Amino acid sequence: MAQTQNLKRPVTVLIALILINGGIACSLIGMVTATIPGMANHENLPDWFGPNGSIIGMCCFFGFIVALIWVNYKIWQGKNWARKLFLVNEVGSLVLVTGLLQAPIEPIYQTIDCIALVLLFWPSSSGWFKAMGTQRESLAAT
Length: 142
What we know:
This protein is mainly alpha-helical. It has helices at residues 11-34, 55-76, 80-100, 107-120, 123-141. The mean pLDDT is 81.
C-alpha cells in the first residue's frame, strides 16, 4: 500500500476559505432576514427574495449556496479545478449582477471576494494545489 504524504495546507488557503465561508454566512443571514417583515430593506430586494417571494427563487438561492459550500469543501481537499470554478463563479456573478441586472454589489463583499481569490492563487496556495494533484496522481498510479 502506498504511503500518503501529509501536505500542510497553507495559511493563504485557510484565510481564503474563512473569507468565502463568512460571505456564505452573510448571504444566508441576509436571506433569512429578508423573509422576516420589518427586518430588511425590502425595496432593494428582487421580488423572489422577500416575504412574498416565490419558493422557487428561494430554493434556487439555497441550491446555489449548497453548491458553493460543496466547491469550498473541494478547495479544502486541494482540488485545483474547484478553485478555478470558484474564480469563474465570482467573475460570472460580478458580470451578471452588475452588468445584466444593473444591481449594486456591496463594496465590502467585492473586496472580500477579491482578497479570497488572490489568496487562492497566491504562489504558496498554487504550489500546494499542484502538490496535492501530484500526490493524487502518484497514488492512483500505484
